[in-house]
Amino acid sequence: MAQNHLFTKEQIRSANLVNLIEFAKSKGYVLENGGRRAYHVKQSGGLYFFKDSNRYFHFSSNTHGGTIDFAMHFCRMTFKEAVTYLLDLELPKKDIASSTRERRQLILPDKAPNYRRVAWYLTQVRGIAPEIISLLMHEKKLYQQDKTGNCVFVGYDKEGVERYCSMRGTFQNKPFKQDRKYSDKSYPFHLCGYPNSRRVYVCESPIDAMSRATIEKLRGQDWKAAHYISLGCLSDQALERFLKYNMIQEIVFCLDNDANATYSNGSPAPNWGQEAAMNISKKFIQLDYTSFIDKPDNKDVNEDLLELRKEITIETELTI
């Protein structure tokens, strides 16, 4: 069955009518004036949103389209995932002024009575150190969603109010990844180092941030000597907010290595993660931060962690 047969024409039309500019903002993209009829996205390789047509054009990749296309190409969703996600959003449709809508409050998912499923998934499947999982659970930045068993990752503002929530499935045969409605990506998921730590590792996802800390631990380093945050996308909004409230000198970008990325039609796509790392790194070097790019050897930091664990296991077996 063709993918568009999963939905009615009206459903597809409704998904494409979701205001593309508001959708991009909800995903953390920072917009600036790009002319009378367009907005330009900072550090984007020439990404423009057109106010009148509810469409985008990206010069670097020579791609264009509507809201569904944008969700597929820039949020890495399949057609089914994109339409389902957009139909469930309560963002304004095109031609409805967003200024007339009041700010909505983030409501976290219900918590499960225990967190055993999440603890098993993160330690056994993802290779995260139990110490790190326990600390995040204690700080209420990580828990298990009731009924679904999903991992729930939470980002807070400086007053301790939850502002960002990302959910990740724990069943390998049923991949699931979604942000909670009304999440603000400018508030990062944050694995804290010591108060006097001056380095921050910047990752795309909470699992990657936890993986980076675990890699430091496995290498015999004091992982608390640095902070670890996730962007939730390829925008630097969360990093900018983090730097306002933390005395950081050194930024290490550990964004995904999308060397094998493709568009939905199978054609090669740019290495989005590393392009973003280079652009954002240059920006903060100009702001007098020491900045490095630590490109994963594999697809992402978590895959690097799993490879490191395999190497350690082999070395241990050889010494027995």
Q: Which word captures the global form?
A: globular
* CA-atom Rg in angstroms: 20 Å
Based on helices, strands and strand pairing, what is the structural class?
alpha+beta
How many structural domains can be distinguished in the coordinates? Answer: 2
Euclidean distance between termini CA atoms = 54 Å
The largest β sheet comes out as: 5 strands, antiparallel
Order of strands in the sheet with most strands: 1-2-3-4-5
How many strand elements?
14
Q: What's the mean pLDDT score? A: 88
The top level CATH class name of the largest domain: Alpha Beta
The helix fraction, in percent, is 25-40%
Count of individual helical segments: 10
Order of helical and strand elements: HHEEEEEHHHHEEEEEEHEHEHEH
Percent in strands: 15-25%
Flag low-confidence runs: 95-102
The CATH architecture category of the largest domain equals 3-Layer(aba) Sandwich
Task: Give the tags.
Dna Topoisomerase Vi A Subunit, Chain: A, domain 2; 320 residues; 2 domains; 5-stranded antiparallel sheet; globular; 5-stranded mixed sheet; DNA Primase, Chain A; alpha+beta; 14 strands; 10 helices
Could you outline the blueprint of secondary structure elements for this entry?
Blueprint: H1 9-16, H2 20-26, E1 31-33, E2 38-41, E3 47-50, E4 55-58, E5 63-65, H3 67-74, H4 79-88, H5 116-125, H6 130-138, E6 142-144, E7 151-156, E8 162-168, E9 177-179, E10 189-191, E11 199-203, H7 206-218, E12 227-230, H8 237-245, E13 250-253, H9 272-286, E14 290-293, H10 301-319
Helix pairs in contact: 1-4, 3-4, 7-10
